[in-house]
Amino acid sequence: MNFWEYLGSRHQHLLADAYQHASVVFQCTVAATVIGVLIGAAACRSDRAGALATTAASTLLTVPSLAVIGLLVPVVGLGAAPTAIALTLYGLLPIARNAVVGLRGLDPALVDAAAGTGMSRAARLARVELPLAWPPILTGIRVSTRMLMGIAAVAACASGPGLGHLIFRGIASPDSGDALNQVLAGTLLIALLALLFDAGYVLIGRLTVSGGTRA
Question: Which is the most buried residue in 1, 48, 99, 197, by most CB within 10 A?
Answer without folding.
Answer: 99
